[in-house]
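Dear Dr. L.,

I hope this message finds you well. Following up on our conversation about the binding site, I have prepared a predicted three-dimensional model of the protein together with iron/sulfur cluster. For your records, I am including the exact sequence and ligand specification that went into the calculation, followed by the structure tokens. Please feel free to forward this to your student if that is useful.
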Amino acid sequence: MKSSVIPVFIPHLGCPNDCIFCNQRRIAAPKVPDAQDVREIIEDGLRYAVMPQISFYGGSFTCIDTKLQEEYLSAAFEYVRSGKADSLRISTRPDGIDEQTLARLRSFGVKTVELGAQSMDDNVLLLARRGHTAEDVKRASRMIKQAGFELVLQIMPGLPGADIGADMQTAREIAELEPDGVRIYPVCVIKDTALCDMYERGEYTPLTPDSAAERCADIWEVFIEANIPVIRIGLNPTEELSSGAAVAGAYHPAMGQLVRSVRLYKKAVQILDGMKPFDNVLITVPRGRLSDMRGQKNANIIKLHSLYPDAKIEIKEDTDQKQEIFIAKI
Ligand code: SF4
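The resulting structure of the complex is given below.
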């Protein structure tokens, strides 16, 4: 019993166009399920999950043909009504939201609506061929919240035309919409997409995993300050992405950990710079955060030693510590 979400993938269904970065057939399951498939996926998921949320991911749910939407929702809602699942969750586009749609979702027990906002810069949205504007994101977000749904917004740092300034501005504007959660997916160049063609023609320079981690760490601070949970950073690793479908960009099987490590490194440097001069210091972190503080392959330790070559820096875990990082001279 480990998961509280049962994901049902509906690859590319309902999408009016191909966003340049997207190849849902590679990211998610290739087959489009029917209602009976949905039941089987849920039955299987229920073997591992207690009162899960059943989540339709991978396409633009509210843009699917209404009859098929209702077949999916109805199949999943059976499990909410029988007390086996908590609620439903769908993922869609900002321009796929209107009053009628929200009424339909509510009548089938949907609790959470995720919107792919991706950017709040209209030029970036245009270059990504999203087919909606930043104003659509604002309008849809307000409607979803006013209708009483939980709102989760997804953003994609590193799209063509988006520098760090544009991505930080997106984060601030997304935070102003007060979502209940945010997913941050730094751009990964996936085979068989228009973005991959641009990359291969030399028209697009993607972020690397390291530069994406730097950018996402700064973006994350915006949401921490606004008290908005970041529920995911980076694509879920899959065998296909790891074995060649992710051609370039910010794909890393442990992107979340990379970002957590960069955040802790930045915090450590900020504190240490304010403590100068020092010879020996002890950095402590709460239980479970030691590997984040050290960084992958001890990257943070190596960087700290090269930044403060004359100091002895020790890193330890303090099981009672609540603060995410504490540094003392010793
Ligand atoms: S709307 Fe979403 S699922 Fe559809 S093509 Fe764009 S990114 Fe992919």
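In brief: The longest helix spans residues 255-275.

With kind regards,
A. P.
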